[in-house]
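Possible regression after last week's pipeline update?

I re-ran a chain I had predicted before the update to compare outputs. Posting the input and the new output here so someone can diff against the archived version. Not blocking, just want to make sure nothing changed silently.
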Amino acid sequence: MFQLHVAPSGDDSWPGTIERPLATLERAREAAREVSGGAVVNLRGGLHVLDRPFELTEADSGTVYQAYGGEEAVISGGRRITGWRERDGVWLAEVGDLETRQLTVDGRRASRAARDGLPGTAVQTETGYVTDAPLGWRSPGDVEFVYRGVYPWTEARLPVASVSDEGGSITMAQPGFGLAMNLYDYSWQGMPARGPGLPTRIENDASFLTEPGTFVLDRSRPGDHVLLYLPRPGEDPARTHVVAPVLETLVRVTGARDVAFRQLVFADATWLRPGRPAGFPHYHGNGFYEGGDVEKAMLDDGFVTYPASSVTIPACVTFEDTTGAVVEGCRFTRLGASGLGITGGEGLTVRGCGFDTLSAGAIVVSGSRETTVEDNRIREVGLEFSGSPGISVTGTHGCVIARNEVADVPHCGIVAGPGRGTRILRNLTSNTMKALADGGGVYLSGPQGDSAADGAVVRGNVIRDTLTPYNFGLYTDYGASWVTLEENVVLRADNTAVLHVAPPLENVVYRRNFWDADPLGHDDPPAGVTYEGNVTIKDERELNATTAHLQSQAGPRA
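New output (post-update):
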């Protein structure tokens, strides 16, 4: 195939040879379109900084974008922050109209400055909160409230609009607070409740800058924003490399056939929606509420509400209605939303990639056919949106999730919503459910097919260390049907599995699984569950020895 080269030191007037490379991906895309039979675009090492999303369409079918010769080529949506000045130990930089929610300092993700909860005695009102303690916030309109555990599986984010001159009355931004009041309307053990309640964490005000390595974005002067950073010991503003992500989307591929990305790094993107007036009224997984009907799920001792429809957290690299695309050996890092999003299309493969330091999930697949997700390593995701699973698929047909490793995530490792013919095979999950509850290492819900022939198969997975209380290592939930779960290994979970859920399970088979504790309901399986040949071994050494052949096959191949 015809070879083109792009380098940060190149020139778009050059021919794109290795000696005289192009400078931008946009010019390389134009040159590739002029070649019949497709082209290979080789990215030389260094930062390829985008000022707008890079987009491919059907006209780009057959094009390959790859790192050249093992060099580290980074496609970045970030902006380096310079011009720091110091005041009382805090670094300040004038950043114009910059909007961002993340910051990277010498390659390390910095956290937004925060404090735990509201001071004093506080109560929720119809429009916000009242507290009897002074607040002392310097830029109230930049403050964001975090609500972990309104339901055990939720973590909402809502911005503040203003505080009273006296400082004890807080007005929350609309429509976000109103959406939350509508969504969270429930009764538990006879005690009704409405609204998100008191925040568990409060972020982004200069008065919270007490922990070294944290930052604040002050937007109190429109168009003249100030970035504040409290340095860690030894950091010097003249030598420290600080990057703020600016773009929300790095790459968007729509309607293309047989495009490929190989050995590239996608980095430095943000997602601004949670800090805007509509906020982030989270419900479950990658989904949040934008309005519409709210329905009730009845419980034995009350009810919870849930949205009739929800919206999915976006991804920073997206594929829509593509055929035969390949993403191989790439890294997704320092991203403010999900890493890779796949919508519709057919035959896309994600293989051998690494995902880390992401605000939301790693891979989100919706409505596609014959997508394969294999041999990927995922860790430290959901850093900002804690409900986000490592891998999630819904509405798919024939999706295969095989030999991936998912570790250190705040909720579920792998999630499969309603679909058909999903195969979840020989994956390794560990340290899942680190923050929220009611989930598992592998979680399925809803119908998975119409028969055993086109149902879901969950086989050969190893699920270790499902951490928070109230979890199920291997979890079939909410009317899951036509699922076969066999030869999986579960150890060190709060509960290994559960057989009685509402709506009930139908045509679900648990067969020849190994675990260190009996699942809930194993002694009285419901009518819709077949439970046979499963083995409980409480001694961990014996369990590991017995299942060594299964455990050796789980996770990515070298």
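Follow-up from reviewer: compared with the archived run. The radius of gyration is 25 Å. Marking as no regression found.
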